[in-house]
Structures
1.
Amino acid sequence: MAEIPATDTMPAREQAAFKAAYAAFRSATDPQDERTLRKLAVVVVSALDAGWSRRSIAEGLGINREKVARLALLQDVPRIKVDPFATGTEFPAKAVAAYRRYEDEVNLRRILTERTFAGAVRAANAAGWSNPRLGAIVGLTGERMRQIAEMHLSSDGVSIPCFTPYAKSPKPKPSKRRERPSLSAEEKAEMLRLAEAAKKATKRVGRRLGPAPSAEEVKELQDALAAREASEELSDLIIAARNRGVPWTDLDDACGYARGSAQVRAVRHGYGQGWSSLPVYTPTQLDGSVQQKLAAVQGGA
């Protein structure tokens, strides 16, 4: 026999069989079940039609008058022959026998449905289905399912459904996490070097250079230009790294900056939409006089 594959969701056909077994069980064990009441009402209504009083019927059948009154309301039931009432006569024995036969049929139906459903619960348990899962199918608690499963009833004479073995479905494998872009060792070293050089950058490039600058003034100008170029190159590197997804925190660390400083520098140098509270950076441009003086000094050297 081929092995049935396990599942964590009971197949629809098995669920339907389980629900049907429960519906029959619930109906047969319900004192107000219409099918049960209509069967018992046959004798009561027939006796009333034959002229017997409710009191006589209750005494003859051994039931209380409240039940007789309840059964008497069900007029749309088949009739059987009941000897008519006559003063001094006892309630007909044939009517009593008919009522007992109907009671036996009702009890047999209850017993068979109890056996069927309790057997179904035990069979599902044996296949690995927990009581809470079974209870969820028919709207009962797991505790109630346990109580039904432990009913000491034989499964003889009833058909018990089979169930597919239960097995937890494997958890889906987590999606592979995308590797976070990072800086190479060379990029980190270059950013740190440029950040150190950029600390000396100033916007006062060449403004103090006179008509005959000294060697010290020329050196100061050259250093200022180098610092400014380093600053602009650093900003370009930060923006390029950020464009490929490198986190701001990594850029701050590479430059030796406090948190947020690399982003501020990038925004000032044209990254993103800019901030209204942050002035836009203007690239360093030497006017003609400064360039001429620097060229003259360098040429004379």
2.
Amino acid sequence: MRLKTYTASGMAEAMQTVRRELGDEAIIVSTQKDPETGEVHITAALEGYDTDEDAIERMLGGGMRPFISEAVRQALSFHGVPGRLIERLVVAMGAVESEDPVMACAAALDSTFAFAPLPDKSAPRPFMLIGPPGSGKTITVAKLAARSVMKGRKVGVITTDSMRAGVVEQLASFTRIMDIELKVARGPDALKRMLDDNAGIYDLVFIDSPGLNPFQERDVKYLGDLLEAGGVEPILVMA
């Protein structure tokens, strides 16, 4: 797959450039609008154009400026991304014609990972929404629960975020409207007991988690303890 990023003053102009250079078979991978300049950035792909070997050769042969791959490598390493994944993304960046490290990394992520919607019928494990403070976990739990209730599913909602002022009351105000009893689990052990006691009762269970700092070892450990105790499927929420 060949990836290329285009920048234009508007969406129509950017799309025309994509079609002109890559043809009608081009796949739009991502679109972004610069809030300051108003420019539109489109990353487009063409299937079957580059192999991984081509990408490596382009990257090492000057197709990608070394500072771009090194900047992305350092940033990902700083955030604790595993080394093998970093190198996989850097290789994928070799097929991206962009001098912007952020756009090159975004295109590599888009081409490496696939995303699917959460099931709305039933799931074998509870879903725990995780993420930094203010990312929208609580309201997302409420929206997911509402969607499932409207489709006739039996839904359980649990919060493990009992320390932050007002968060339990905020989520409870939503669950009351849906006639769902909000359960509060104060710690990993309490969460495990709660899930064990309610096993098989609900089609879907959504768990709100506290906003934690990924750079604080204590916070990361606590989140890991919650995930392990509940045997849950973690869902990252980013604002």
